[in-house]
Amino acid sequence: MQVWTQTLVTPILITSLYLFVFGATLGERISVVDGFSYAQFVIPGLILMGVINNSFTNTSSSLFMSRHLGSIADLLVMPLSSKQIVAAYTLAGMLRGLLVGVVVGLVSTQFATLPWAHPCYAVLMAVIASMLFAVLGLMAGTFADSFDGLSLYINFVILPLVFLGGVFYPISILPPFWRTVSQCNPLFYLLDGFRHALLGTGDISLWLAFILSGGLTLILILAAVYMVEHSKRFRA
Amino acid sequence: MGYSSSMKPALEIKNLSKTYAATKVVDNLSFSIAPGEIFGLLGPNGAGKSTTINMIGGVTRIGGGEINIYEHKITPHQSAPPQAKRLTGIMHQEIVADPFFTIQQALALHPGFFGIRRDHQWYDYLIDRLQLRPHIHKGMHQLSGGLKRRFMLAKALIHKPRLLILDEPTAGVDVELRHTLWQFIRDINASGTSILLTTHYLEEAQQMCNRIAILKDGCLVALEQTDILVQYERTRHFDLHLRSPMPTIPPVLQRFNPTLNKAGTRVSFVASANDDIGAIVAELVASKMVVHDITSSEPSLEEIFLRLTRETRPKH
């Protein structure tokens, strides 16, 4: 939060531009999706995209910079367990991601009104999404060897997951092969669950989305704790 | 300070080893530091000092052996328990500082990471003794090298550790600040904090340390009380100042391989502690030479360090 213009204002501005382009401009020219306007369809995806991008970037860049500058030594001499280190990085990433998500959500009210069918589930799904991608960011920050390496994770992992996960279209309109591929994308379950909770309808059941996303998050958290405890990239 | 076996050590290292890419950087290292002791760990670059410190601090995993910090054990299979880390303060060799914080913010946050509340009196003491008061609102990028070193020392001490590890604390600081830091470290030690110090300034080690260990290629080549270590080299350097020039070196001095200055009025040689200097001078006087002054000096720690690190085979 020391560099809030970079960590909050910039992502909020970028996601708001997405909202403007896909919600207000293109959205008016695209036909209704599942009984909702395109703006209503795309807003949950854009909110969640802001959440996951920023949760991921926060942990990956914080940890990578610490390793790069050597200040990780400060962290490692502290009486913190691997679980506490994972929790600290993850919660920080979640905070940034959710703050961006909240602001983008508020901005989106200017473009469309959502039914908020299951608000508590929507919040819970956003929390799970931020947690999952914050933990993924922690792993990327541990394994990246350079700034280029870090951007590879963003450009070749996160970006394809976002664009192929159904942010901008329902996967039901895809040909069968690509629909199956999209169903292997963990982001699809987060997105569909979040959209389902906000709009009241989705491609899969809300419970399946929660179980798969929650299960994957739990597995990744355990893997991250193991990584911090045992990886020589974290502690030589 | 001598080490008494009845005292529980502040730090005990047993058969410590670390290997990086098939190279043993620390090899079967063992030593202990008594409570209240200042212990020097010396060695040329790459001797394994920083790796040893990083293993003590938990920055690097232990390869083999064990470390006990006030009886809290660390082994290759058992990372440092929180109690051990709370008792330890480390000032790293590299400038390690989060660039986003000012001195005040960083020192306010740091005790919390060690599970203790900020002690305002202790904070003020450190800020004033290390002359950081005019700079507390400055960010890390605004600090000079000397200020960063002082900040790092304050940060290492802010949680009141009982074992302070200083990895080249005065590297790159000016002479005046070095002496200020030495006095501050002595005062911290006088209050009961045990100190492990690595330095390339051998004068610093000689002045500060009760005992000194010298590492070479990750192995211990010497471990002794400082005053005993400086007598390791059982030789002394002599200068005989003559009233009138000496044309040639007399036979009595030949075996010492002496040197004569250009004017021929000063003969310099190194004699062992067993040589009878009185008898040598008597022979010179008998040969009509007027010796009007004799100066002698013991070998410096630097000479001993160089001999040990160049010639000595590591002992396990």
Structure description:
The complex is a heterodimer of chains A (236) and B (316). With 236 residues, chain A is mainly alpha-helical. In chain A, 74% of the residues lie in helices and 0% in strands. In chain A, helix 4 crosses helix 5 (119-143). The radius of gyration of chain A is 18 Å and the shape is globular. Chain B has two domains: 11-230, P-loop containing nucleotide triphosphate hydrolases (Rossmann fold, 3-Layer(aba) Sandwich); 235-297, Alpha-Beta Plaits (2-Layer Sandwich), CATH 3.30.70. In chain B, the strands form three sheets. Chain B has a six-stranded mixed sheet with strand order 6-7-8-3-9-10, sandwiched between helices. Chain B is elongated. The two termini of chain B are 24 Å apart.
Helicity level of chain B: 25-40%
- Integer average pLDDT of chain A: 89
Sheet with most strands: strand arrangement of chain B: 6-7-8-3-9-10
Radius of gyration of chain A: 18 Å
From the N-terminal CA to the C-terminal CA of chain A, the straight-line distance is 29 Å
Beta strand % of chain A: under 5%
| Major beta-sheet overview of chain B | 6 strands, mixed
Structural class per helix/strand content of chain A? Answer: mainly alpha
pLDDT < 50 runs, ≥5 residues of chain B: none
Give the total of beta strands of chain B.
Answer: 14
Largest chain interface and its two residue counts? Answer: A-B, 17 and 29 residues
List keywords for this structure.
heterodimer; A: 236 residues; 9 helices; B: 316 residues; alpha/beta; Alpha-Beta Plaits; 2 domains; four-stranded antiparallel sheet; 11 helices; 32% helix
Summary of the model, kept short:
By secondary structure, chain A is mainly alpha-helical. In chain A, 74% of the residues lie in helices and 0% in strands. Chain A has one domain.
List the helices and strands and how they pair.
The complex is a heterodimer of chains A (236) and B (316).
Chain A: H1 4-25, H2 38-69, H3 72-76, H4 82-108, H5 119-143, H6 147-163, H7 176-183, H8 186-199, H9 206-230
Helix pairs in contact in A: 1-2, 1-4, 2-4, 2-5, 2-6, 2-8, 4-5, 4-9, 5-8, 5-9, 8-9
Chain B: E1 11-20, E2 23-33, E3 38-42, H1 49-57, E4 64-69, E5 72-74, H2 82-86, E6 88-91, H3 103-113, H4 120-129, H5 145-157, E7 163-167, H6 175-190, E8 194-198, H7 202-208, E9 211-216, E10 219-225, H8 226-229, E11 235-242, H9 251-254, E12 259-260, E13 266-272, H10 277-286, E14 291-297, H11 301-311
Parallel strand pairs in B: 3-8, 3-9, 6-7, 7-8
Antiparallel strand pairs in B: 1-2, 1-4, 4-5, 9-10, 11-13, 11-14, 12-13
